[in-house]
Amino acid sequence: MAIKIGMVSLGCPKNQVDGEMLLARLTAAGYELTPYEEQAQVIVVNTCGFIEDAKTEAIDTILELAQLKQSGSLKGLIVTGCLAERYREQLEEQIPEIDGVVGIGKNGDIVSIVDDVLHGKKGGYYAPKNQLPLEGERVIINPPYFAYLKIAEGCNNRCAYCAIPAIRGEMRSRTIENVVAEAQKLADSGAKELIVVAQDTTRYGEDLYGRPMLPQLLERLCEIDGIVWIRILYAYPDRITDELLQVMANQPKIVNYLDLPIQHCNGRVLKSMNRPGDREKLTECIHQIRATVPGITIRTTVMVGFPGETEEEFEELCDFVKEMHFPRLGCFAFSEEEDTPAATMDGAIPMEVRLQRQQVLMEQQTMDLYQMTAEKIGTVQQVLIEDFDYDREVFVGRTIADAPEIDCKVYFTARQGEIGSFVSVRITDTEDLDLFGEICL
User: What is the pTM of this model?
Assistant: First the structure.
């Protein structure tokens, strides 16, 4: 009987792709995947280690799963991902329930590592970060009608608050041909939406081609039959070019959606973060995006409570967010991350002040979102059907304005519908920030 492997994947879509590649290697070696943790002989916890909350979630998950060694069939607990890469010795020493700590450079050896653990060997497995495989077979763990497409690994931006370059290393892009080949395979497997991800998608190709090549890659992806939507995440405002916007505007498969983390608008704060720009340049960038791609949904993230942020600078950020009317926005309170320049900067803001600023900004944003959501009543939206809610007896889906897991939903009535198909829905009402409607016949 095949040994059963379970996986818990935490963190961002980029980490999920790594986990899917691990699962493919394990199944190719004869292991059987199970979604039931209590039945697994080995569980791989694919961790995030980006901010404090993510680290806490990862450790809590590890400790909870370790209890299955007594109550379930668990024989081996393996930790991979960013937390394993960042806190190698600490995990080995402080959580003895872990049988194997695997740095990202050793992901390619996951089969032999599982074999070691099943034979009673405990320890750490590490290699240079640039040995993390960029390509390979995947076992898609989300619904098959959409897939994340990771086009590069690592980051060269060196934002003062961010530990990713230390964890993931320098940026390494995949070739256009390699990315397109994987995208074709995903389409052949039923994917209708591709979600393009990297630490900085707008910097894709610099290391291979000497200049950013995201526009050229997108053009090639649009040629693939079966793909209906292409969504771009993790773009940087200072690298938004006319060339990229023209491709977005001219290619109907590229949805009118752009994830554009700005972090702040005040020039002094951004400089302290080691990010370029200021309010004037950001305003110009956003106006250019909206002028070139009418109706685009811009999703952004901002950070409050960065060391030295004054009350006036925070209020400027609030004013900017209100002025820009971002349809999608997340706000983070600054978190000191070890071994980053920001962790030891002067002017630390008390945590209660950071959290208060976060609450103030999100309350303001929520009121703005209620108005923007209400304005969609009476419109017809293209919706990707994702589920059926048996309690409400309605279908559930997403519009082009909504990325999976992080944005809003559409609930609508229809006599029948196929999960993973596209329909037109007339919006008739809202609830909180979600939409309600009925299918257009």
Answer: 0.94
